[in-house]
Specification:
single chain; mainly alpha; 2 domains
Length: 115
């Protein structure tokens, strides 16, 4: 066997399209009103598998409250993550109110300390 060849369809690789929280809510509402999965997949240009996964996560989506400004949830977070994020935001606000500089590196370091 010879060396592996680069894919001839290199330019046609599928790009991952994230769905917003609002889009997932729309899909769930439309499905509840009787729209079929295949029709939702066509309308939102997603696979039927993706639509089914969104529908399976419906209950978890209802109980999840995304942080302010978050429009896309790639994973449904646990309560521990929510609590850590809340505490980290309180720490950041405290630092900012004290006039301290808060960079991404400092925030990451603080997050690692609390693991």
């Amino acid at each position: 066997m010879g060396p592996k060849q680069a894919s001839a369809n290199k330019g046609s690789e599928k790009k991952k399209h994230m769905m917003t929280v609002e889009m997932k809510d729309e899909i769930n509402e439309k499905h509840e009103s009787g729209v079929r999965v295949i029709e939702l997949a066509r309308q939102y240009e997603r696979s039927t598998s993706t639509i089914c996964t969104t529908l399976k996560q419906k209950d978890a989506m209802k109980t999840t409250k995304p942080s302010k400004g978050v429009t896309i949830l790639s994973k449904l977070c646990s309560d521990i993550h929510d609590e850590m994020e809340r505490l980290l935001l309180i720490w950041i606000k405290g630092k900012q109110l004290a006039g301290d500089s808060v960079t991404e590196a400092i925030i990451c370091e603080k997050g690692q300390q609390n693991l």
